[in-house]
Amino acid sequence: MCSPILNVTKEEADLVNSKSFVYQNNSLKTAEFHKKLLCWVHTMSDRQNTRALAVNETWLKRCDYGIFFTNKKMKKSLINHYSLWDDCENNIDALNKTIRAWRFVFSKLLTKFDWYYKADDDTFMLTENLKKFLQNFDPMQPHYFGVHYKQTEENGNPYGSASGFNSGSGYILSYEAVRLLNKALDKNPYFCGDFLYEDVGLGNCLAKLNIFPAQTTYENGNHS
User: Fold this and answer.
1) Which candidate, 24, 40, 174, 67, places its Cα nearest to that of 113?
2) What would the mean pLDDT of 68-81 be, rounded to a whole number?
3) Nearest-angstrom CA–CA distance, 199 and 77
4) Among 45-54, 74-83, 162-171, the least confident range
5) In the chain, where does DSSP find H-type helix?
6) I need a surface site. Which of 101, 119, 169, 197 has the fewest CB within 10 A?
7) Which DSSP letter does residue 223 get?
8) Do 38 and 102 form a contact (C-beta atoms < 8 A)?
9) What is the Cα–Cα distance from 62 to 106, expressed in whole angstroms?
10) End-to-end alpha-carbon separation of the chain, Å?
11) What is the CATH number of domain 33-207?
C-alpha cells in the first residue's frame, strides 16, 4: 500500500523543471503566473504504449502544459512524464496516488497555472471547449468542476451522501482550490483519509475545505 506522502528530492524536481515544456510557449518558463491550463494524466506501465500514447498524440498537446504520472519510466523519453508512484501497485490506492500528483504539480513545478485538469489515460477531452468554459470563472476562487455524480446508501454507496466528480471524465480545480488542498496536506499528509474510490475520496476531502462540486451543465442538461 502506498501512502499520500510525496517523496521527491530537489534534484528530481529540478530535472523535471529543466525539461522543455513540451506543450507550451517558451515565454511561459519565466513568467510568475499565467492564465493557463495544466493537464496531468494518470497512467501505469502496462498502458504506456497504448492509452498514454493516444492521449499524448491527441488532446493533451492542446493544454498549455501536460504531464503523465506513472509507476515506471516511459521508454519514449520525449513524452513529458514522471515516475511518481513506483512503490504503488497497479490500480491500487488511487486516492493516494492522486494526492501525490496534486502535491507535485503545485509544490514541485516552478510554473503556476490558473487551472489544473486531472484525467485518466482513457479520457478524451475537448480542450478548446474546456478553456472556453473556464473563461467565465476566477481561478483565484476555489472552483471544482467536472461531470457530477451523487450516490447514496440507497444505491449501495458505502460513503453515504458523498458527492463529487467522476474521475473517468476528468475534473478541474482552480489555482485557489489546489493551493488550499496543498495547504491542508502540508499540515497533515493524511488529511484526505482513506477511500476505495479516488473520485469519491477527493470529493470528500475538498468538502472538508468547503469546496463543493459546481454546476457544469446548461439548462437543457447538456454538459459544457
Assistant:
1) 174
2) 83
3) 30
4) 162-171
5) 10-18, 51-57, 94-107, 127-134, 175-187, 198-207
6) 169
7) B
8) no
9) 20
10) 37
11) 3.90.550.50
